[in-house]
Design a protein that fits this description.
The protein is mainly α and about 450 residues long. The protein has 3 domains: about 80 residues, no CATH class; about 190 residues, no CATH class; about 170 residues, no CATH class. Helices cover about 70% and strands about 5% of the residues. It is built from 17 helices and 4 strands. A hairpin with a 2-residue loop joins strand 3 and strand 4. It is globular and about 70 Å long.
């Protein structure tokens, strides 16, 4: 009976691992259906920030969670892990506060949407900290998946249109299609590559994380360098200023402020060296696009994107001024923004403010904003303590990887909103929080035991 019982446990654990793996691989692919849709404008535009989608990755996660739960029922002796209890508690308090605030709103759909997503991300968090898939495997499949995304992005840049991957969620993009992110150089327009994601900026941000994972995790030197080149090329084709600033800014901050060990500096130099090779390849591949990239890197004061972002910040400031304590409610920025500006906003201009801190303060008020900052402080505190505590080289490098990822995310948060508004960005943020929350102490002890046994 005990053997049969053990087989059952292993069977359900493997099924849980398999579907959790499918979940991570499918996240960038927008294979989804609309579960809830708000009013659609007559022009056919609608807001993805107010629409609740049911995606294939949601289904994979649900199946993985069911098998994980069954395996726990069979294996009652298994010890549950919660990661950093401080980070978990402050996150739960923050979300409970949002839900309670939503109960007093006339429109309950955003509250329900936030609750469903919160439950999904909480399940995902627990599955990561309980190592349904180890952090190493998650990083490995993230690297493979986003290397594919980078390759798709390069093809889109070369052909200047979609590459017939619509069944995998590729958006319909082209230089003459309205609503597609483009950059202009004189009379020529270049599309910004999307991969299969909703926007080039989010592809750029997730490629930044993948580049850091690659440099610190992938052991095969030749393969690692090739991956860095292809992913750097993919990043360049997005023309994402926020992602590039986050990428270079986090590397510079780690190098100058934290003064890491030589092995870590070599990894950072490898990123910069092979990233530079990618720039040369990009120039040869798309010479005119490179000039457009140069122009985009040095924007003018009348740059349309900067003008729009400035207007969104003004709207955010007016919201905070009128609703300082509790904000306008979660998910209500885009639905209420017209009330805070005299300018008649076009349908496509109904976007969240491109600054996560301003968005959190606008929607949850100064009280929610204080919880948000406190959670960030706890994350930095956790990384700092682990950096001081561990002497093992692998554990140290893992800590520096977390520093890089968190720095990059925070830098990008000053220029974009997708970490908390779009599905793929939210998933990436939960992954980083779970990685930080999961202590490396257990891994350190196992490595010490292996050394002792070897001796």
């Amino acid at each position: 009976m005990r053997i049969i019982h053990k087989i059952h446990i292993e069977h359900f654990q493997r099924l849980s691992e398999l579907f959790f793996l499918f979940f991570f691989i499918s996240v960038p692919f927008q294979i989804r259906t609309i579960f809830f849709q708000p009013d659609v404008f007559a022009s056919g535009n609608f807001s993805p920030y107010e629409t609740l989608f049911l995606s294939l990755s949601d289904i994979f996660l649900l199946i993985a969670a069911v098998f994980f739960g069954i395996s726990l029922i069979f294996n009652r002796n298994k010890k549950w892990h919660f990661g950093s209890k401080k980070i978990l508690i402050i996150a739960l308090v923050f979300f409970i506060m949002i839900e309670l605030q939503g109960l007093f709103e006339s429109e309950q759909k955003h509250t329900l949407q936030a609750l469903l997503r919160m439950l999904e991300y909480l399940i995902m968090y627990f599955m990561i900290v309980n190592e349904v898939l180890t952090m190493e495997r998650i990083k490995k499949y993230w690297i493979i998946t986003f290397s594919m995304q980078a390759f798709i992005a390069v093809l889109q840049s070369i052909f200047q249109h979609s590459v017939n991957l619509s069944p995998l969620g590729e958006p319909s993009i082209g230089a003459n299609i309205s609503g597609v992110a483009k950059i202009g150089l004189e009379q020529i327009k270049f599309i910004r590559s999307y991969g299969t994601l909703p926007h080039p900026n989010i592809l750029g941000g997730l490629l930044v994380l993948s580049l850091f994972f690659t440099a610190f995790f992938w052991k095969n030197e030749k393969m690692r360098r090739n991956i860095i080149i292809i992913q750097s090329l993919g990043l360049l084709t997005t023309f994402s200023r926020s992602a590039m600033v986050g990428y270079l800014g986090s590397i510079m901050f780690l190098w100058i402020a934290l003064k890491p060990q030589l092995a870590v500096k070599k990894k950072l130099m490898e990123l910069l060296k092979f990233g530079s090779i990618a720039v040369i390849i990009f120039i040869l591949m798309q010479t005119k696009a490179f000039y457009a990239l140069k122009e985009r890197a040095l924007p003018q004061l009348n740059d349309k994107a900067l003008t729009e972002r400035s207007e969104y910040l003004k709207i955010s400031a007016r919201m905070i001024e009128k609703f300082p304590l509790f904000g306008i409610g979660i998910g209500n920025f885009t639905t209420r923004m017209q009330d805070f500006t005299k300018k008649k906003l076009a349908p496509w201009e109904h976007q969240p403010v491109h600054n996560v801190f301003a968005l959190v303060a606008s929607e949850t008020g100064l009280i929610g904003f204080a919880f948000f900052l406190f959670a960030m402080m706890l994350i930095f505190q956790k990384i700092y303590r682990e950096n001081k505590k561990f002497s093992n080289r692998d554990s140290k490098e893992n800590v520096y990887l977390l520093y890089l990822c968190v720095f990059a995310v925070i830098i990008i948060m000053f220029f974009d909103h997708y970490w908390i508004t779009l599905y793929q960005g939210q998933i990436a943020l939960v992954i980083i929080i779970a990685f930080v929350s999961t202590s490396t102490e257990k891994k350190e002890k196992m490595q010490i035991r292996k050394l002792q046994n070897f001796r």
